[in-house]
Amino acid sequence: MEYFLQQLINGITLGSVYGLIAIGYTMVYGIIGMINFAHGDIFMVGAFVALISFILFALTGISLPIVLILVLLIAMVFTACYGWTVEKLAYKPLRKSFRLAPLISALGMSIVLQNYVQAAQGARIKTLQPVIQGGFNFFKESDFVVTLSYLQIFIVLVTIVLMAIFTLLITRTDLGRAQRACEQDRTMTALMGINVDRTISMTFIIGSSLASVAGVMFVMYYGVIDFYIGFLAGIKAFTAAVLGGIGSIPGAMLGGLLIGLIETFWSGYISIEYKDIAAFTTLVIVLIFFPTGFLGKPDIEKV
Amino acid sequence: MGKDLIQKSLKDSLFTGIIALALFGPIVGLRTVAKNEVLVVEPKWFVVLLIVAFCAVGRFFINIYTYKKEKRRGESSSLGKAISNFLDEKGAQIAIAAIAFSIIFPFMPFADRYWMDIAIMMMTYIMLGWGLNIVIGLAGLLDLGYVAFYAVGAYSYALFAIHFGWSFWICLPIAGLFAGMFGILLGFPVLRLRGDYLAIVTLAFGEMIRILLLNWYELTKGPDGLTGIPRPSFFGLPFKRYPDEGVETFHTFFGLEYDPMQRIIFLYYLILILALITNAFTIKIRRLPVGRAWEALREDEIACKSLGVNPRNTKLTAFAVGAMFGGFAGSFFATRQAFISPESFTFIESAIIVAIVVLGGMGSQTGVVLSTIFLIGLIEVFRDFESYRMVAFGGAMVLIMVFRPRGILAKRKPTITMGKHG
Lengths: 303, 422
What we know:
The complex is a heterodimer.
Chain A lengths: L1 H31 L6 H22 L3 H28 L8 H22 L4 E2 L7 E4 L7 E4 H23 L1 H11 L1 H6 L4 H27 L1 E2 L3 H16 L4 H21 L5 H15 L14
Antiparallel strand pairs in A: 1-4, 2-3
Helix pairs in contact in A: 1-5, 1-8, 1-9, 1-10, 2-3, 2-4, 2-8, 2-9, 3-8, 5-6, 5-8, 6-8, 9-10, 9-11, 10-11
Chain B lengths: L1 H28 E6 L2 E6 L1 H27 L7 H26 L8 H26 L7 H19 L3 H23 L4 H21 L1 H4 L5 E2 L22 H4 L6 H26 L3 H11 L1 H6 L4 H27 L1 E2 L6 H14 L4 H17 L7 H15 L19
Antiparallel strand pairs in B: 1-2, 3-4
């Protein structure tokens, strides 16, 4: 029971991280119908920016809450630049091209980003000293003490706040309306006087900044990153997006949570060596048996 | 007009500079280095300054150039089109010349060990590209996990050869069979998925195979890999300097001096023959009903269904045949290296093979050769800049897609036409 509770806490934390990345996949898929293969690497860049700024702020001695807010903002701004540039360079020229072209271009971009960060920052793993320490302990008298760390609370809270802001953005603002319109029919939206290019750019900027927040959390939670983390995290987040129904934003969050839980329970109860297989198997099973996911719309093929 | 343009370009290049600063500032400019177990930041502002200046100036000139080009739009002529037209006319002669060149290649004066190794590597990739071309180019199924079949071929060859001592020529078909069976096994559940979903699922399968190879220690020795894989022999004559007592070797049988190059040249011809078989098979099968069904399925699945083509079985054959050739190439790889480990079968290998097929122009056999020479050559040229070679590789992928989305040889010759000029 205590062990189960601990796994549940860990799973929800991990799920928040995956959920934030999954939103980027789902938004881009919804609006231009492509899998943004480089999104996982954008997340990795976010983690690196966070790492660098944590190291720099450690020298200044600013108090912790301000540092956290500053790091989040810095990571969001710089990573959003990456998302925007990737879209402009690699996807925009291919928007009217045939189906596989953007996917291959995204694959190339993912290779570029990974190896560029490797070249610039070195191939060795980077460790960050814990930023937030301590937490609550439950069941102190039993054999297994359940820990809910402040860091985990912080991660889940930030995720909830961001989700709330983001949901408001999509449902209440002009930008959100334009985005939803582009998802339905891009030509028609353009005829209504909406700048489609700008809307797509904004989608990438929002998706990348959410991924960068996930990166900040990742580097704080695990304390270890390298240039390769984006690959696995990207596939898992994509699985989350598919599980929740690709194109659906609440679905992405739900899917992220589920993938986080599946992964932690699998490594807690079955086998830690094969924990990545858990995510892959889920992906395959979901795609075969419920290709529309939980909250997705069925994909009707017209002749 | 001219002044306006310059002003606009300047503004634009300033903007580019700012973006470039934001992009490269933190990642390139602030390198994290471990000092006494603690990470510190090492500034590298000069490099950033150079990159930013390069981006801004580059943008300025591109602006001016594209403005000039816009004035004379319409007379666009591209190199790729010229190449594909030329190949169309002289296709057969060029193919013969290329094959003839590859046959005499080992006896060229410059063909030393280094060049032979590169040639063997390129041939392996060409063979993999031709194998994958059946899946992607003909059947239109984007398979991002092709390396899994390469791995299955390599491991089954290695295991059979080590544990049973079977010779290369027995293990080769077995390895192909195993890989083909894996193709059917993996393809069965996933082949009704749509294009990009299929891509991700095959990618996941590729990674699953790799994780399995890493963790199944009893069979695969995990990350340590398998060593001592037997070398192939020339119809039973081994390539050894000091053979066991009473065993005839290649050089004693033919009365030659022993030379390690003999084995390399033999390996080269081996992969050349395997690759040419793959190519001949593809060319032949395109004309057979199943090959035509593949191409029809690629163009329009619904129309195919209504004409009575079973999409699942047709796709499965393509997947299995492609996997089988991957398995052949894998067993060649195992026998050439004499050592295999899961390290050799990472996702990046799949990405390279997919890039070779797609950048060459899907379905074009010549395109595979051209893009292999280009991409593998690019990786070779950047060999001394270890960490930049994959950046260059990925960049080339993006650039080719942006400028020629259908690949270098984009023009696809119809396999079948109505009437003489149809």
